[in-house]
Write a structure and sequence with these properties.
Blueprint: E1 3-11, H1 14-21, E2 30-34, E3 40-44, E4 48-52, E5 61-70, H2 73-85, H3 94-101, H4 113-124, H5 131-134, H6 140-148
Antiparallel strand pairs: 1-2, 1-5, 2-3, 3-4
Helix pairs in contact: 2-4
Length: 150
């Protein structure tokens, strides 16, 4: 059965510290997708939405977990298509502040890591379409919780 594979991590850096502060103690402060070629596609503070080699953050990781989400081939294709369409979009620098101010998380012109992944799951039908209406922010903790329910 096809599966989407996510990588949840915590790094030793200031953005991880800030994100962790607003997640009620959840350890992971970044989430990205493991692509079929082994690269990690996600939104990072430096560089925005990029496909990065799997060793790009070697030596900077405090903790790491891989999670697979079973899906149909149609869902998988839609998910990868959505993510690839987001390549080279800028990082959403307002997202960390938005965790406090509760701003709308779905702005397709820029992405925070968990916004990108959640939008991908909405695009492929794994998360309900009304997710954008019911949540004003999406953290790595939220993505981890939602995929655990699938």
């Amino acid at each position: 059965m096809p599966a989407i594979q996510l990588r949840f991590v915590r790094h030793h850096d200031l953005p991880s510290f800030l994100i962790g502060t607003f997640q009620d103690g959840f350890w992971a402060t970044h989430v990205e997708t493991v692509m079929p070629d082994g690269h990690y596609l996600g939104a990072r503070f430096r560089g925005g939405v990029l496909s990065r080699p799997s060793n790009y953050d070697k030596g900077k990781i405090a903790r790491e977990e891989f999670v697979s989400v079973n899906c149909s081939q149609l869902e998988l294709d839609a998910y990868y298509t959505f993510l690839n369409d987001q390549l080279n979009k800028p990082y959403d620098f307002t997202a960390i502040l938005g965790m406090v101010t509760h701003r709308d998380w779905q702005k397709p012109d820029r992405w925070f890591c968990s916004e990108l992944e959640a939008a991908g799951f909405c695009a492929c039908g794994k998360f309900p379409a009304h997710l954008a209406i019911n949540f004003d922010r999406i953290t790595p903790r939220d993505v981890r919780l939602m995929v655990s329910l699938l």
